[in-house]
């Protein structure tokens, strides 16, 4: 029987060597260590042994069992590891294949520019106002110090609906509307002087121009207006310098040149350092080193007085800029019509929200 | 306004500045100069030559062989193709080695076997602006005056070595529409004295034969001067060159002088042939309605009573400030002339010119109202003197003047502190006074109420208020010296309005849902509604119309965003982009007036989707857009805005598929508030517009704002007790809307039902004909205790009964 046990151990361990899967290992366990397995069968045969032999063989059986169980555990660990590795290998993917991305849409570049500019001025304590695109002649022109028969009102510039109604040619009429609303509020509350105003007005305006690479019969403007006690032209300069550096970069400078708008006095054109050459002079800036970006000035006393502000007590500044112009410069878009063609091949470049 | 550097130099010392440097100084001062044109486009070595004799070329019919004296010693032999070449002429000769514009170098050449030692030149070959030359001078050789000195450099002789600066004048600076004004500007900028003669007093002998009458308020001053026995002919070269430099065509020595003086002093002048003025009497009056008049351009004009005319007792002889008349024109036979110098009302001049489609240099000056009334008589005398000199006439008597209203210089008060208050500068009083003096303004030695009294000369009628003077001080002092500060004062936090926030949120959500934002024009045409089936709606065809559209296509304001979006879809499909998901936040317009607005403008959030839509992995097939894809976008959008409990109600709407259209509504204060619409385009519209299946949605801003709960979001406590879920599978009639059952379930489920959703839908072979299967998942929970099975079963049975009673819904086995 001893020989038998030794032979069993040898056979079993040999068989274990050749096993490759956990399933086979399970079968092996049943065959040798199970309740109906060979070792148990041998144990049963111990009844035929003498009393002297029994403890000796019993001890030997236990040794064999311990040896087989130890071998089993070792093998099991080995096979589990192998199997895990196999599974990992099978589960690996080609990480270079494209993801199932949720396709992002895009914000229109003009609205990106407007949003950025709004955010800059919100941070400076400005409100944002919206106004009508179909406007009374009064607000668009007369309230802005452009009386009837002023050369600036020529029919070829303005789309009229009728004698008194037109498509606004500028966002400036909102200066008068905002001032009027603020002055009326003060009046209703029985106060002598209206509140100060800090507002920007983004919006669409219309001019009777043929559409080409640099002209559009409809385009976006942003108007700015600050009216308070003690507002100075230097405040205009400082505000626009801050704005220009946020939009065009911290290194840009601005330049003010005398100009003319009926509703500001003094009036100024504002240039920024040429983005292309940094100010040294190139084709983009016609060798001047400067690029014109907006018109501005101190609010004309007439505009203040017309809406019920005391122009001795209050002063203000106003500015107006073309959104397309900023967007064209910023994104290197050379044809203004691209903004209104809405070619998705162009728009998909504006997916990023930053 | 074109300014010749050489001409300007006669009035102000600028020799130390190049034209470009001068332009830069003007630009800084507020008159931008970006264009500088060299009159000499590259002519060197061309000289005045004398054509000694010509003979026919032996091998060519159209060529002549000329013998030329170019002052170079030996005569030159030059072959010439110009038909107008003739012996005795003086012509420009490009000798061998000369250069012409376009890098054209003259070499010795043989033409058809005959040697040619140079080239005779036309005006064009010299780079001259031929548009302004008389026709005979543009065809063939440019024939020079007989007294042109042989051998003289042509560029020098024709005064071509000059630079023309183009001044971009803003409307308020029409005072600089002449050399005098520009010279004053330069004098102020450079702080230099003028060297211009501005006062003319010379009177002729005898007394003037003319009588002047002003019969209209639209003329405040009229002065007339007679010059007799003139010989009308070509102007001398210097005068022609000056006019050509500023872009004016030379005509004859009388007309040219009137133009010259207009450019020099700013006062438009006109010359009448005195023999054509009846009774030597000039009357300034309003035209009569229907009166006709033939202007200098030979066109008969019908006038009306709003127009101002110059007349004699018998007829109209000119349109005041706009154009002269043919019947009083100065021509080669004219002997006696009467010159006009006047002030006409700007508005009247402008309206007359516009009504008749005329726009002359004179009108440009009158309509701006910036004529220096102090120069009216001076300019008249200056012109009379020059004409007498150049046309050999004699000035007769003095100017006959009628003055209705004299022009006084403006006297304005300027407070020194106010200058710095407005500008934020610290300009001293002395600096301020010095600047004003540089501008030629008179500053009083005393102060009135702390203000300086400033007398502004009549050449600057744009100075009307204190702030105008402040701008002048700032301009000359230098805008670059104004410091940069930030506004002080009470600060209010900048904040967006609810509508602005809603727009931003909607934009974010739709972009994250994969839609591209577009921006389209507002101008449209009623015809664009028809292919989309929208023309049957009166609210859509009732468009606000433009009075002066640029084209019929864009002649009205849009009432609907769909046509604009369809145009964008078509544009992109034509470029082979077929999967499109687009949106626009845009305005529509309707004619009824709004609150203090002339028409009603409404904001719409509209989207259009076609082709495939949705995230795809490798190898997965695209999913065509259907109603539910678009509805999903709208639901996500409404979630993002924070509008909940929205109902989609089957609806019919023009242009949309009757079976695939829903109104988007929400119960609000007891009424159904319509938020918008969603639907597939009608197949007929798709066909008419060459579209594949396309879906549209539209939300109304004003309704969204009403629907949006104003209250802050308060998060309810997380559930403390477990929930119990029950599913129901039902058979209902095929046309029963699944959404209707939701309402029934919610009402019957009462307080214990926390949510219900539709999780399955089937119609087809597995269910009886005319029926469909719907499955709902219900969640029951109490906030106070753990529900028992019995409680839930009892409530759930109530739900089942309600469904049976309300919708004939049967439980599916």
From TrEMBL, chain A:
<feature type="domain" description="Aminoacyl-transfer RNA synthetases class-II family profile">
    <location>
        <begin position="113"/>
        <end position="328"/>
    </location>
</feature>
<keyword id="KW-0479">Metal-binding</keyword>
<comment type="similarity">
    <text>Belongs to the class-II aminoacyl-tRNA synthetase family. Phe-tRNA synthetase alpha subunit type 1 subfamily.</text>
</comment>
<feature type="coiled-coil region">
    <location>
        <begin position="61"/>
        <end position="92"/>
    </location>
</feature>
<keyword id="KW-0030">Aminoacyl-tRNA synthetase</keyword>
<dbReference type="InterPro" id="IPR004188">
    <property type="entry name" value="Phe-tRNA_ligase_II_N"/>
</dbReference>
<keyword id="KW-0547">Nucleotide-binding</keyword>
<keyword id="KW-0436">Ligase</keyword>
<dbReference type="InterPro" id="IPR010978">
    <property type="entry name" value="tRNA-bd_arm"/>
</dbReference>
<dbReference type="InterPro" id="IPR006195">
    <property type="entry name" value="aa-tRNA-synth_II"/>
</dbReference>
<dbReference type="InterPro" id="IPR022911">
    <property type="entry name" value="Phe_tRNA_ligase_alpha1_bac"/>
</dbReference>
<dbReference type="InterPro" id="IPR045864">
    <property type="entry name" value="aa-tRNA-synth_II/BPL/LPL"/>
</dbReference>
<dbReference type="Pfam" id="PF01409">
    <property type="entry name" value="tRNA-synt_2d"/>
</dbReference>
<protein>
    <recommendedName>
        <fullName>Phenylalanine--tRNA ligase alpha subunit</fullName>
        <ecNumber>6.1.1.20</ecNumber>
    </recommendedName>
</protein>
<dbReference type="GO" id="GO:0004826">
    <property type="term" value="F:phenylalanine-tRNA ligase activity"/>
</dbReference>
<dbReference type="InterPro" id="IPR004529">
    <property type="entry name" value="Phe-tRNA-synth_IIc_asu"/>
</dbReference>
<feature type="binding site">
    <location>
        <position position="265"/>
    </location>
    <ligand>
        <name>Mg(2+)</name>
    </ligand>
</feature>
<keyword id="KW-0648">Protein biosynthesis</keyword>
<comment type="subunit">
    <text>Tetramer of two alpha and two beta subunits.</text>
</comment>
<dbReference type="InterPro" id="IPR002319">
    <property type="entry name" value="Phenylalanyl-tRNA_Synthase"/>
</dbReference>
<dbReference type="Pfam" id="PF02912">
    <property type="entry name" value="Phe_tRNA-synt_N"/>
</dbReference>
<keyword id="KW-0175">Coiled coil</keyword>
Automatic annotation (TrEMBL), chain B:
<dbReference type="InterPro" id="IPR002547">
    <property type="entry name" value="tRNA-bd_dom"/>
</dbReference>
<dbReference type="Pfam" id="PF03483">
    <property type="entry name" value="B3_4"/>
</dbReference>
<dbReference type="InterPro" id="IPR020825">
    <property type="entry name" value="Phe-tRNA_synthase-like_B3/B4"/>
</dbReference>
<keyword id="KW-0460">Magnesium</keyword>
<feature type="binding site">
    <location>
        <position position="462"/>
    </location>
    <ligand>
        <name>Mg(2+)</name>
    </ligand>
</feature>
<feature type="domain" description="FDX-ACB">
    <location>
        <begin position="719"/>
        <end position="812"/>
    </location>
</feature>
<keyword id="KW-0030">Aminoacyl-tRNA synthetase</keyword>
<dbReference type="InterPro" id="IPR004532">
    <property type="entry name" value="Phe-tRNA-ligase_IIc_bsu_bact"/>
</dbReference>
<keyword id="KW-0436">Ligase</keyword>
<keyword id="KW-0067">ATP-binding</keyword>
<dbReference type="InterPro" id="IPR005121">
    <property type="entry name" value="Fdx_antiC-bd"/>
</dbReference>
<dbReference type="InterPro" id="IPR045864">
    <property type="entry name" value="aa-tRNA-synth_II/BPL/LPL"/>
</dbReference>
<feature type="binding site">
    <location>
        <position position="468"/>
    </location>
    <ligand>
        <name>Mg(2+)</name>
    </ligand>
</feature>
<feature type="binding site">
    <location>
        <position position="472"/>
    </location>
    <ligand>
        <name>Mg(2+)</name>
    </ligand>
</feature>
<comment type="similarity">
    <text>Belongs to the phenylalanyl-tRNA synthetase beta subunit family. Type 1 subfamily.</text>
</comment>
<keyword id="KW-0479">Metal-binding</keyword>
<feature type="domain" description="TRNA-binding">
    <location>
        <begin position="40"/>
        <end position="155"/>
    </location>
</feature>
<dbReference type="GO" id="GO:0004826">
    <property type="term" value="F:phenylalanine-tRNA ligase activity"/>
</dbReference>
<dbReference type="InterPro" id="IPR012340">
    <property type="entry name" value="NA-bd_OB-fold"/>
</dbReference>
<protein>
    <recommendedName>
        <fullName>Phenylalanine--tRNA ligase beta subunit</fullName>
        <ecNumber>6.1.1.20</ecNumber>
    </recommendedName>
</protein>
<keyword id="KW-0547">Nucleotide-binding</keyword>
<dbReference type="InterPro" id="IPR033714">
    <property type="entry name" value="tRNA_bind_bactPheRS"/>
</dbReference>
